[in-house]
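Summary for the steering committee. The consortium agreed at its last meeting that each partner would contribute one worked example illustrating the joint modelling workflow. Our contribution is presented below. We chose a case with several input lines so that the handling of multiple components could be demonstrated. No manual editing was applied between input and output; the record is shown as generated.
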Amino acid sequence: MLLSVLNYAGIAVFAASGALIGVRKRLDVFGVWTMAVLTALGGGVARDVLIGVTPPTSFQSWQNLTVATVAGALVFVLHPQFAVLRGSVLVLDAVGMGVFASTGALTALHHGVSPYGSALVGITTALGGGVLRDILVNEVPLLLQQRDLYAIPALSGAAATVAAYQWGATESRALIAGAVLATAFRLVALWQGWRVPVAPEDLAGRIGRAVRRVFRR
Amino acid sequence: MLLSVLNYAGIAVFAASGALIGVRKRLDVFGVWTMAVLTALGGGVARDVLIGVTPPTSFQSWQNLTVATVAGALVFVLHPQFAVLRGSVLVLDAVGMGVFASTGALTALHHGVSPYGSALVGITTALGGGVLRDILVNEVPLLLQQRDLYAIPALSGAAATVAAYQWGATESRALIAGAVLATAFRLVALWQGWRVPVAPEDLAGRIGRAVRRVFRR
Amino acid sequence: MLLSVLNYAGIAVFAASGALIGVRKRLDVFGVWTMAVLTALGGGVARDVLIGVTPPTSFQSWQNLTVATVAGALVFVLHPQFAVLRGSVLVLDAVGMGVFASTGALTALHHGVSPYGSALVGITTALGGGVLRDILVNEVPLLLQQRDLYAIPALSGAAATVAAYQWGATESRALIAGAVLATAFRLVALWQGWRVPVAPEDLAGRIGRAVRRVFRR
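What follows is the complete predicted structure of the assembly.
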């Protein structure tokens, strides 16, 4: 029950992020709706295709599409107010990412995917919608560009859910452990301003010099 | 029989639209062919993957690829003449969209997808090829950008096919009803210049004032 | 055994090409890793989804991801040295393309796909990762743009593997024939500078005049 609510919250929040980008790109009302729906449901559809659930859940039950549509419509109407809430959008987005990482991983486990594969499916679920959103509006995915941590928290959350479930935790606990870990990790990284490095010009040289220094001692 | 012909017509027309964009982008002969094939067959491949038909029909039977190749080759040779025919390309594109919306929906029904899911599969079939085409040449999909109606006609056509089939119409009639509705809707919208609105700056304020005015009475 | 080695070599080489582009685009360490993994494994995942192998092999066994990660990490550390090796990267990329075209086709044959469909699956495997790589960094795929031969060698290799297997060759021989043909074809085309034509302005007119000249005789 709680999980179902969290799942819809994840869909709503990703739909809102897609719709907000659509509004900023001056897309028409249908374009905004398309962005909301594909961002919110894209990760789950990728998950279902990868684990062989056809047709995907979002094509079978109307709830997912309805939640995404309502969230997209709210942004279409209230987008100036949403711009003010940018901070809380980041928080909600972190919640959505965490929920999708853990529910994606558990769904895969249910369908007989190995623990290793289930963790990867969890990451794909958490990150797929955002990548699709950025490709659609013709930008390099934020996931690739932004130097703050996003994928490592998703990976941790998916791995935590799989590990907890393998070690005999109940489903709810495995899901909550993964979702909380991923969300908290992402929020702390944002709050502390943790940065991921780009490739330095002469990393090989630096490693070489460090190794030589060690051997000189 | 008629439907088979219409289906190949849809493939040919989408192939021509992909090839024309490839020629304008100065792609080489193989790039133009790739654009033709992926635009024409992309929607159907997405449909088959979503409903679990693997390998997709376009990988199993040679007819689809041949039709797309011939249409692409014609555009490669005759593209200056095609530029003149821009109006008729829009008409043919509307026919292709209508045919794919209804055949996509009926194919999904045949594979046991729910009516709701089948309508969504129909839309995906009708719109998938064009979105793929635009992503490949690095542009924001026309579907998102253009302010004339495209997705609503596709949705109407797919829904009409599903509804007619559920209410006991024969397959041919369900298909023709959907294809004709989607195509006619799209053509009338183009002819009348119907426009889809973008998000207004202060829609929430306007709705608020309208509500207050109602309550003052 | 040899084939397994070749397959990992293909993954490593595609991972290196993805990572190198990621470094050039100034992506952070995780972005570079994502580029490496998606480029190296994207074609194989597409292959498995198309032929109904779910979850895809790269989600089931850890080896593919490990090879891609190691190759991506090497590029991240040694990228200035890799820039010097541009020639050898092109050679390795040709080997990877050839290996994926033939292994993709044979995998499809094993799963009951028709010879025709298997050749198409082989091409998709060989070209899918590179197209995904270019879409992610927001560029028109090299496959579409570059005027040297890439897809025709992939097609030849996939078709050769299918034909050899149909005519009773052992699996190893069919695979080696396809991989060698595709790789050699690509390398000779690069070496000789073979170019693919773009659409000429008045091809129809030229064909018309040539036909009239023939009939005048």
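The first helix of chain A runs from residue 2 to 24. Residues 2-216 of chain A form one domain.
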